[in-house]
Each structure stands twice: as C-alpha cells, then as structure tokens.
Description:
Layout: H1 2-24, E1 51-52, E2 59-60, E3 67-72, H2 73-79, H3 84-87, E4 94-98, E5 106-110, E6 113-114, E7 126-130, E8 133-134, E9 148-155, E10 169-175, E11 183-191, E12 195-207, E13 211-222, E14 226-228, E15 234-235, E16 238-252, E17 255-268, E18 274-276, E19 291-292, E20 299-314, E21 318-336, E22 347-367, E23 372-386, E24 389-391, E25 396-418, E26 421-442, E27 460-461, E28 466-487, E29 490-501, E30 521-534, E31 539-563, E32 566-591, E33 596-616, E34 619-622, E35 634-646, E36 650-661, E37 664-665, E38 675-676, E39 679-690, E40 696-703, E41 711-717, E42 720-725, E43 730-740
Parallel strand pairs: 7-10, 14-19
Antiparallel strand pairs: 1-2, 3-9, 4-5, 5-6, 7-8, 9-10, 11-12, 11-43, 12-13, 13-16, 14-15, 16-17, 17-20, 18-42, 20-21, 21-22, 22-23, 22-24, 23-25, 24-25, 25-26, 26-28, 27-28, 28-29, 29-30, 30-31, 31-32, 32-33, 33-34, 33-35, 35-36, 36-39, 37-38, 39-40, 40-43, 41-42
Amino acid sequence: MRTSRLFTTAAVIPIAxxxxxxxxxxxxxxxxxxxPLAEGPEATAADSDIVxxxxxxxxxxxxxxxxxxxxxGETLKNVGALTSQDVARLVPSLYVGGxxxxxxxxxxxxxxxxxxxxxxxFDPSVGTYVDEVxxxxxxxxxxxxxxxxxxxxxxxxxxxxxxxxxxxxxILISTTKPKxxxxxxxxxxxxxxxxxRSSAVVNVSPxxxxxxxxxxxxxxxxDGYGKNVxxxxxxxxxxxxxxxxxxLLTPSANTEFQLTGEYSIHDETGPAFTPRSPTGRSVTxxxxxxxxxxxxxxxxxxxxxxxxxHARIDxxxxxxxxxxxxxxxxNVVYQDVDATRVAPNLANRRxxxxxxxxxxxxxxxxxxxxxxxxxxxxxxxxxxxxQPTVTLAFNSxxxxxxxxxxxxxxxxIDFKPIDGLQIGGGVRYTKDEKGIRSGSRLTTSGECTTxxxxxxxGAYDAQSCLVALQKxxxxxxxxxxxxxxxxxxxxxxARTGRGQKSGGFNSALSNVGDLQGYxxxxxxxxxxxxxxxxxxxxxxxNVAAFQTDYKDIQRLGFVVIDVxxxxxTAVTISNAxxxxxxxxxxxxxxxxxxxxxxxxxxxxxxxxxxxxxxLSGGVIVDQRNYPFQQVSRNQGSASVTxxxxxxxxxxxxxNVNYAYRSRYELAPVPDELLSxxxxxxxxxxxxxxxQAIDGLEISAFVxxxxxxxxxxxxxxxxxxxxxxxxxxxxxxxxxxxxFGD
Length: 741
C-alpha cells in the first residue's frame, strides 16, 4: 500500500506542479526569460551527432553501447512514414504487422521475438512507448504518426531501464514539444482511393522562455481498396481523427513541467479476412486479392484518450524526474470469423475496454568529476480491462476481465576508470500481480456455459459464470556493458542483459490445464558491436552481432497435472519451448556530397528452437521445426535522398527507398498456405519549396510503387486459411504551408 501511494504521488507531481506554477506566474508574463532544458532526443551535441535516450539520459547515438536506430521527424517526412509499419522498413530485425483483431492493433517482432496474440490478457514481447510512457497492451499501438519529433528503436533486451515485456526491444515514440516561437503549420494530402490526410499544428509562446503551447489536429479518411462482393461494402477504408494539446512551462533554467493530452477516434471497415482454400487460391473462384465474399462484416470503431505529465528539476549534482500517465480506450470489432457465406454465420462482436495508470520517479546525476553517471528509479502500473465477445449465430458470449499491477525499482551506473573506457551495469526488481476472470454464457437465457473442468471450488462464481485466477511473480533483470572509445569516432562495445515477459493464464479456460497458468519467459542476450564515423564523419557504419538465449517461451504446449490422484495431460499455453537466436545487423549512412545521402541497413537472423514439445492425438511430438512467426531471416533497405537549394528558384528534396524482406510465416505452426514469400517494396517522395512563396512546400508521393501483393496476418480453421492483405499502391499530392516565426 505504501509503495502504491509513493508512485501515485509520482504520477500526480507533474500535473500538480504544472498547475501550481502556471497559476503563480499567470500575472507575470514579464518574468525573467530563461532557456528551457534540452529536449534530449531532439537536441544535438555536434553538427553530425544524433542524440538518443536509450539509457534514460541524452547521449550521442555513437557513444551509447546499445544497438539503436533513430528516425527523426524530417526523415519520417522524406520516406513517407505514417505508422510504425512504415518505420519497420528502416530498422534491422524489426517487423510490424496488423494484428488482425482491429485496425489499431499490431504484431511486433524484433530480433526474432514476438507475441502475435492480440487478446487483452497477453503481454507484448516488444515495448511501445509514447513520450516515455509504456503502452501495456498491443491495442492502440498502430496509430497515425502525427507531429512526431523522432522514433527510436532499441534492439535487444531492455529489461533494466525500461522494464518487463521488452525481451525483443523497445520502440520509443516522441511527440514534438512546444517551442518558444509562434507558428502554424497546415498540411493537406490527396491520393488515390479518395484519400484525404490533413493536419494543422499551432505553436504559441504567450510568455517566451516561460510558457509555450502546442495544439494539433489530424484527420485521415480514405475509401476502401477492397470489396465484399456479397454486400458491395468497401473494405480497408480509413476514417480517423486525432487532437493533441501540449503545454511546456519553464519557470527557471533548470526546471520544466510539461502536460500533454490526446484524444483519437476511428471508425473503419477492416482489417478484413479473405479465405484461401487448401490449394492457396481464393475459396470463391474469380475473387480478387483484396476481395471477400461473406454474409457478415468486418468493422472497427473506437476511441482513446490519455493525459501525460512530465516534471524535471535539475538541482546541479542531482536531477529529479517524474512521469505520470492515465490512458483509457475502447473499441468494438465486428468480424465474420469464417469469412464465407456458408451457414452458420460465425460473425462475432468483440468489445475491448482498457485503462491504465502509471507513475515513475527517477533520480540521476554524476560523481567524481563526471566519471560516474548513475540513475535510480521506481515504477508502478495499474491496469484494468474487459473483452466480452459475442458469437451471434450461437447466442453465446465469452467473458474476460483483467486486473494487473506492476511495481519495480531499478538502478544503473556507468564508470570511466580511464579516458576512453567505460564499464556499466544495472539491476531491476519487478513484482507482478496479475488477475483474470473468464467464463462464458448464453446471451438468451444467461445460462453458464463455462467449461465444467475449470469450475474449480473457490475460483468459480456460478452467478457471474466467471472463474477468477490470480498470479503473483517477482523477478530480477540486469544489464552490463564494457565499451571503449578506440578513437574519437570509433566505439567498440560488449553488453549483456536479461529481461522477462510477464506470466499469466490462458484466458480461454477450456480445460483443467488452463488453471495452472504460465511463468514469465526469459531472454538473455550477448552483444558485440562497433560504431564508427569515418571520412570526416561523412560515413557512419554501425555493426552489431548478438545471441539471445530464450527460455520458458510461452507457447501452446501441454502440462501434466494431478487430478484426484490421477496424472492428467492437458493442452494449454505453457512455458513449452527453449530457443537460441543469433543474428547480425548492419546500418550505414553515407553523405556522399552536401546534397546526396544514402542510408541502408541489413539484418540476418538465425532463430532455432532447442526444445519444444507438444501434444497431438494424445502423443507427445517434437515441435522444434516450428517456425518463428513473422520473422524473416534476411531483411534490408536502402534509401537515397537528394536535397538541393536552387538559389532564387526552390529547395528540392527527393527520396527513393526500397525495402526487402525474405519469407516469413503468419502462423506459429508449419503451414505453406500461411507462408508469405519474400518481397520488396519501392517508395518515392518529392518535396519542393518554391522561394517565391515563403513557407510553402508542395509534394508528390507513391508508396508500394510496383503494387506488391502481400499478407500482414493470417489464421486457419480446418482446411481453410484466412489472410489479411497489405496495402496496394498508394499515390498522391500534398502541400504544406508554414506561418509565423
């Protein structure tokens, strides 16, 4: 209780401080002007430096012993990146696909580690953070990028400084902070399929150096590029809106408070399944790649909002930072699960509600004339959610409720015993409290249909039809690194780290084995890397080689339990597998001239199950040949950017990029019909700023130039397979006009 109160205070500090200080200064717009603290990932230490926050402090990317990719806001514009799916083209070992259970849910795989389940009770294996706040579920992680400062992708276990559920790594998304200027930026794009994407951002500084405000609106609509031939309904349309407000208060040079709020809504048809027969062809002859033929519907409608507060006070030797967040969202998804017109109609309706509250406190500083960097922190998360699903044909409803708490404390220290050499390490202790209530009933009579095998005394409530289960886990994470600055521009490093993904329960609760739950899975990685800048920093080459020992992997397996003195085997999600993943990653950026830049990346992954047993027909089977879902052995991309200022005429920015991904599997079991063959995708963007009209920029873009056909998600039912098609060729024109300072 005392710990929970401490972090409740941590969450309230940023908001309360902001309001108190704002009130105190409301009548003092002429206060002494001070410069705000550096923005961290947006700041630069030198002309060619890229600053990251991979160790929860601002550092040059080339000095950090972590494999990290940074995509700044300008690069996002150059390559036309609108979501994390687009960012995945630019990052080694990263895959981001649609979750198949809603237009804003995603499946993320990084360094071969993924969790494709979008059920609200399952935890992600790769963390997604927005302004330093972890999104606890996969729902809501596939959103439109809008007024984004940068995206950082940390590869490898991040269990110490970022916590649980970061076994594969973490994606850090930073929105643009308010600035001490007055400006307005209006952008509009129109493309094929009647696509409209427009935004407006207003930044004002009513008290320069003291208070800055930033407002933003985004709307994105598009007709569907698919069609249900049975009903004529368009599929895969787009209809989303976002509103964001942020205020930055800097009462002194060493103090800042920021408050950010966002509200978003969406109402879309998709993602839609299209069925494939055992031959791999469409179930309905003549059906196109983006077409379906079914008597139900696919739709997703929902809304989300959040409020985040940051407080940072620099006392000189010590800096205090507090982060508080509240997030709430809901969506309703309609799916025709069999995606056919064959009776019975297996359409269902899934309503997901989720809210989370989190608070974090950090203390950091330096010792021994800057030779020691240290950070101590604490974190608390509380989340609740529900996910009832109604199958209309059978008048049945499955019920699912979650209530989770996580509390953690962490510390990390880096020491430079001699010039050029740094040794560091850290630990984190996490305590998880996870609870679910699950069951089923008929919607007509209310009769309980919860499986008899799980109606355990003391856990089952006959009135609500729910089985209540609780699981508590505590575990340690750690990291250690040694890095040596061989020259001013060459860093050599070695690191290791251990992290966990939370344990839990199979929420289906179909047999007695599901009552046992599963333990946290554990990833331990070992990494060697070199970061270099050559030829007067015109060429940057970063290489990392790693091995991840991955054990207690949560997969569909079996357990043997005692039932009334009789050993009983039950199929359930368990810690069924152990694996080893080896890989190498390369990132190159070459500034060939002042106008021409070439960027590229490549990764090779070699995942292998060392043990994995399952149960089929009552017989134990070896499943070590099973695939790692959504993992390509080889992937890479290349991007060419040409920027030139034609004096008196215009400034030109042109980009062409290509990304390739080798074969990957959509299912966790061997299935040729759910195997996506390797493919490549071309994209291009042209931006021109005519000097005759100050502030104006016009653009043209094309994405998926060759209209590659590919799948982003898949499932199976008997002999029929269901897939979700990726976007076809998209093209259009745009314009941006900037007013003000």
